[in-house]
Amino acid sequence: MTTTTTLLLNEDIYEKVIQELVPSAKKFLWIVTADIKDLHVKKDRRYVPFLEILRDLIEEGVAIRLIHAKEPGPRFRKDFDKYPVLVESDLFERILCPRVHTKAVVVDGKRAFVGSPNLTGAGMGAKSPLRRNFEAGFLTDDPASLKPLMEWIDQLYLGDFCATCQRRDVCPDPIA
Questions:
Q1: Domains in the chain, start-ordered, CATH in brackets?
Q2: Considering 47, 73, 140, 172, which has the largest number of Cβ atoms within 10 A of its Cβ?
């Protein structure tokens, strides 16, 4: 079996991860990020909140797991409220863990991006080249990398680290 691992830099992250990888999800999409803001992305001929892409995926039956480290800002929350399916659907799960610093996107257990950018416009390369962050990451379909990454995300999501966490005093909503 041939695997591919590709280095992505700056605006390539937006094209390959946000525009191609995320919308390709058929079964599930897992996103892990430290920071999350009101990222806007191109859809057809206009720019929409990234949350609209997530809503579309949920309406297509894709299960989404979003793990982030801190409460999103007011613009994100305002956009979030525009998509009630994100609250109402059992297909959308969101947890907050202040210790998360990982940035990863996993699609259907077949491909993943792991890198430096947070789920923000500046991080994911959706902003002007003069305003975005300098970011790097790897896109892979290598099962030897995907399996432990997914197992680790599952442990995080299920709260396996909560019992021994020494940051519970700053955790607004312990998982377990």
A1: 5-170 (3.30.870.10)
A2: 140
